[in-house]
């Protein structure tokens, strides 16, 4: 194994990903996952209002169903950590996602749409995150010396799909209607399983061999605590919830206060997705060099500057600069944060992965609540002070945790479940 790690460090990360069957397939799978999500999300509020006759306040409450995401992430992740191969549960989630979007498309009552998003689509989202756990399992079996770069490069597939989806969704909505757009989202969700047909990755578990006996050995065999992971996710939620405020009120600010033309508003809003494509590979390199946890701390501070920039901007150029800072923060949280979460709970990589991406959905719900309350108190653009303050709190908390984690002993490495010969199936 050491020879493999030394060799891959000298090669480009993209070449490493393209040579690996799993990494290559995972990137394609994540493209369809991002495509399916972004095809539907911009159309959901319009669907609720136009097709299900929901009032605007009720449509705004829809995304509060994401507050249940951590519970589903915990259950799905814990289930996967008892399986030999997580990808079987990932495939089940893709099928469930198709059924959920189709059921949503043919719903006739608002409460039914809420229930579907709360349960069926919540499960599908949690199961989809298991692909990152499978990638981490492979990195344990075949070390590369570039874990963060590999994870970030694979994650680019999702970003590319997420950028493409809104345009496709708008076209489908205009041509075929909103219900067929949701069906298309379900098809894309199912297609994320297609590249991984026949792929297996043995689950990695902590290696207990050679651990000392006595009191230290007994402590090592105790069940690991979820507290570091939950603390990290809570602090990340504080940093991430500002994105809901940005999407809700930045277009309003540009329209009402700056008089920004339609095309330029679109450029400012979409600049974050483009920026993430640029920053995610860079953050992977920096994380492998300086440490992922440290990088998350520093880049959450960029979120402070970004939100203060949104609040102080009096022209579109300043908004673009602030959006670039926000893109850098999100590139770190979206592309590198997952590896920090997995490192904090190595005994449950599936649970760490599912909980992390469930936390992103949870943050969207919290952001909706903060936006509704904050705009009434501070107005626009004053409402951006709220995510700026939350990013400060998150950065301080993450810094303290990083220091404490650095002083703690490293977790034990992982080994595959089952026979060693099964490692051949992941290559």
Give the helices and strands, then pairings:
Layout lengths: L1 H8 L3 H7 L1 H30 L5 H6 L7 H12 L6 H19 L4 H9 L1 H9 L1 H12 L5 H30 L1 H14 L12 E3 L8 H7 L5 H14 L1 H17 L3 H29 L1 H21 L3 H20 L1 H8 L4 H30 L6 H23 L6 E3 L11
Antiparallel strand pairs: 1-2
Helix pairs in contact: 2-3, 2-10, 3-10, 3-11, 5-8, 5-19, 6-7, 6-8, 6-11, 7-8, 8-19, 9-19, 10-11, 10-15, 13-18, 13-19, 13-20, 14-19, 15-16, 15-17, 16-17, 16-20, 18-19
Keywords: Cell membrane, Membrane, Sugar transport, Transmembrane, Transmembrane helix, Transport
GO molecular function: transmembrane transporter activity
Protein name: Major facilitator superfamily (MFS) profile domain-containing protein
Strand element count: 2
Task: List the secondary-structure elements in sequence, H or E.
Answer: HHHHHHHHHHHEHHHHHHHHHE
User: What is the CATH topology assignment of the largest domain?
Assistant: Growth Hormone, Chain: A
State the assembly state of the protein chains. Answer: single chain
Distance between the termini: 13 Å
Radius of gyration: 21 Å
* Main sheet characteristics: 2 strands, antiparallel
Mean pLDDT: 86
User: For this structure, what is the CATH class of the largest domain?
Assistant: Mainly Alpha
Q: What does the overall shape look like?
A: globular
User: Treating each run of at least 4 consecutive H or I residues as one helix, how many helices?
Assistant: 20
Q: Give the low-confidence spans.
A: 1-10, 209-220, 418-427
Helix content estimate: over 70%
Query: What CATH architecture of the largest domain do you see?
Result: Up-down Bundle
CATH superfamily of the largest domain, please?
MFS general substrate transporter like domains
Residue fraction in strands: under 5%
Domain Major facilitator superfamily (MFS) profile: 22-406
InterPro entries: MFS (IPR011701), MFS_dom (IPR020846), MFS_trans_sf (IPR036259)
Keywords: Cell membrane, Membrane, Sugar transport, Transmembrane, Transmembrane helix, Transport
Subcellular location: Cell membrane
């Amino acid at each position: 194994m050491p020879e493999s790690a030394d060799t891959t460090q000298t090669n480009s990360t993209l070449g490493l990903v393209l040579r690996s069957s799993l990494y290559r397939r995972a990137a394609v799978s994540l493209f369809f996952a991002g495509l399916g999500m972004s095809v539907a999300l911009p159309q959901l509020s319009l669907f609720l209002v136009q097709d299900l006759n929901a009032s605007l306040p009720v449509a705004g409450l829809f995304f509060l169903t994401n507050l249940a995401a951590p519970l589903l992430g915990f259950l799905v992740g814990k289930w996967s950590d008892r399986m030999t191969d997580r990808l079987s549960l990932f495939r089940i989630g893709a099928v469930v996602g198709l059924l959920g979007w189709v059921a949503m498309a043919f719903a006739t009552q608002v409460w039914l749409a809420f229930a579907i998003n709360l349960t069926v689509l919540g499960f599908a989202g949690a199961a989809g995150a298991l692909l990152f756990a499978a990638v981490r399992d492979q990195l344990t079996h075949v070390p590369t010396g570039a874990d963060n770069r590999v994870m970030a490069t694979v994650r680019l597939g999702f970003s590319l799909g997420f950028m493409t989806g809104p345009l496709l969704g708008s076209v489908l909505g205009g041509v075929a209607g909103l219900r067929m757009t949701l069906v298309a989202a379900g098809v894309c969700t199912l297609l994320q399983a297609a590249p991984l047909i026949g792929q297996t990755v043995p689950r990695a578990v902590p290696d207990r061999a050679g651990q000392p006996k006595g009191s230290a050995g007994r402590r090592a065999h105790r069940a690991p605590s979820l507290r570091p992971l939950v603390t990290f996710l809570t602090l990340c939620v504080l940093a991430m919830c500002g994105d809901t405020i940005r999407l809700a009120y930045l277009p309003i600010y540009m329209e009402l206060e700056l008089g920004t033309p339609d095309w330029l508003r679109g450029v400012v809003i979409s600049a974050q997705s483009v920026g993430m494509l640029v920053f995610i590979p860079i953050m992977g390199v920096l994380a492998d060099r300086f440490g992922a946890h440290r990088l998350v701390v520093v880049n959450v501070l960029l979120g402070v500057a970004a939100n203060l920039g949104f609040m102080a901007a009096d022209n579109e150029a300043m908004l673009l600069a602030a959006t670039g800072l926000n893109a850098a923060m999100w590139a770190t949280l979206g592309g590198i944060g997952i590896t920090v979460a997995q490192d904090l709970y190595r005994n449950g990589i599936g649970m760490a992965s599912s909980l992390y991406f469930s936390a992103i959905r949870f943050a969207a719900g919290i952001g909706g609540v903060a936006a509704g309350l904050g705009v009434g108190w501070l107005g626009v653009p004053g409402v951006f002070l709220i995510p700026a303050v939350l990013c400060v709190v998150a950065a301080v908390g993450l810094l303290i945790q990083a220091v404490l984690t650095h002083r703690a002993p490293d977790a034990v490495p992982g080994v595959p479940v089952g026979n060693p010969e099964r490692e051949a199936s992941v290559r």
